[in-house]
Description:
- By secondary structure, the chain is of the alpha/beta class.
- It has helices at 26-44, 58-72, 93-105, 120-130, 146-156, and strands spanning 6-11, 49-52, 77-82, 108-111, 134-139, 160-165.
- The chain has a 6-stranded parallel sheet with strand order 4-3-2-1-5-6, sandwiched between helices.
- Helix 1 crosses helix 2 (58-72), helix 2 runs parallel beside helix 3 and helix 4 (120-130) runs parallel beside helix 5.
- The mean pLDDT is 96.
Amino acid sequence: xxxxxxxxxxxxxxxxxxxxxxxDDPRCLxxxxxxxxxxxxxxxxxxxxxICGMARGADLYFAQEVLTLRARxxxxxxxxxxxxxxxxxxxxxxxxxxxxxILDQCDYETLVQHRYDRGCMMRRNRYMVDHSARIIxxxxxxxxxxxxxxxxxxxxxxxxxxxxxxxxxxxx
Length: 172
């Protein structure tokens, strides 16, 4: 894939989302809608390849929105960048099914390493940034955590950065 037309994603897991795992929450539905709009804008700007880290929460929302975009624009491709083979092993059964269903629909799959270790998530995040020209982030503004570190790395690498707040100002 050409880096100039590749966009990656970083975002929070359910424990940092105000609605947790309740995807029927109006704030979650609004975020998914805004993600879809952001992806349409990326498509209009020439992005065709999208990389997702396949984590629970916002990553899977992103992947599903990319699949929706691909249904309208068949030239769109989705890459699942997995940090290790056991990524979803400890997840609830329904989330494991969802993960596998999305993975089965990916055009490409990148396995960063076979076994889990402390650095595999960071290596996955750097892989995504190093292969992209744009990053879309769902970010709560807290300077700690993987999302913040990935965003900082992306900014240092000069990626075009699009940050979606978890909630719109009028919702706060």
